[in-house]
Amino acid sequence: MPTTTLTRPRPPLIDWLAIISLTLGIFAIVTSEILPVGLLTVIGADFGVSDGITGLTMALPGVVAAVAAPAVTLTTARLDRRVMLCVLMAVLAVADVLAAGATSYWVMLVSRVLVGLTIGGFWSIGAGLAGRLVAPPSVGTATAVIFSAVPLGSVLGVPAGTLLGQLAGWRVSFLALAALAVLVLAALLVLLPPLPGDRATGLRVLLGLLRARGTVVALLATFLVVLAHFGTYTYVTPFLQDVTGLRPAAVSAVLLAYGAAGIAGNFLAGRAVATRPRGAFVVCGCLIAAVTLLLPWAGATAAGAAISLVLWGLAYGGVPVCSQASFTGAAPHAPEAAMVLFTSSFQATFALGAFLGGRLVDAFPISTVMICGGLTALLMAVSLWSLAGSR
What we know:
This protein is mostly helical. It contains 19 helices and no strands.
C-alpha cells in the first residue's frame, strides 16, 4: 500500500501536527458523543423527560453513525479526504451549537443526528490516514496517537464537560465543544495536505469481508461486549446518584478515575493484542461482566463504586483496541474496509445498548440494568473463548 500521496516532501513536524489535528478531531467527536453520560440527569430534567428517554441522546448518534460509516465512505470515495474531514468537523460545530440552544427535546435529538453523521464519516475516513501523512516506520505510532483520542475523551472530555455543566449549565458544555470543533477545523485546513480520494473501498469488498469467518467472530464479540457496556454505562450517573448517593461533584471525580483507568487499559490492551488478541478481548469481557454483576452490591458504598468504576474503565479501555484488532486481523488485505465495518458495527451496537438500557431503566430498578449487562458481557467472553477453541 502506498504510504503517502504528497507530491513534495513536507517537514516531519508539519506531518505530526496534522496527526495531532486528527487526534483532536476524534477527541472532540468522542466527547460530543458520550458527554450526555455525565449530564444525563440535568438534560432530562431541563426537558422534562425520564432518564430512559434522555438516553436517546446516546443511542441516536450511534444509529446514524452505523449507517454513515459505509454510506459516507462509499459515496464520497473520490472526493478529497481533507475537504471531507473539514466539512464533517464543521457539521460537528453546528451540532453542538444546536444542542446548546435547543428549545425542545426534539431539537436536541436533531443535533444528535448531526453528531452521528460526523462520527461515522470522520472515523472511517480519518482514523486510517496515518499511512498517508507520515513515513512508514512511524505509521504504527501515528495510528496509536490518533486512537488515543478515544480514552482521552473519557478521561478528559467527559469529566471536564460534566464539571463545566454543573458549574455553568449543561448548555455551556456543548458551546465549549463547538468552540473546540471550530479550532480543529482551522487546524485541519492549515495542516492537512490535499488527500485525493484514490483509495476507494468498494461495496464488493465490504460484502466479501462479511462472509469471512474472522469477520463474523469479530462482529459477534463486538456486538455482545459493546451492548453490555453501553447498556449499563450510559446510566451510570443515575446509578451513582440514586444508589450510591454521590453528589454531582463526586460523580465527576469517579468518572475521571474511570477515564484514567481507561487510558491504562488502552495501552495494556495495545500491547496484549500483538501476541494474544483474542485472549485480551476475552479478559476485557470477563472483567466488564464481573464489575457490572457486582456493582449493585459493591456500588452501595462510595469506595465500592469508585473501585468498581476504575476496574470497569480498565476493562473497557481495551475494548476498542481489541475490537479493531479483530477486524483488521480478519482482513489484513483490506484495512480501510475493515475500519468501516469496525466503526459501523461498534456504533450500531452502542446505540442499541443505550436504547435497551433506557427501556430497562424506565421499567425496572437501575440495578437490573447492571445485572443484564453483566450477563451479556459474560456471554461474550464464553462465546469468544469457545470459538477460539473450535478453530
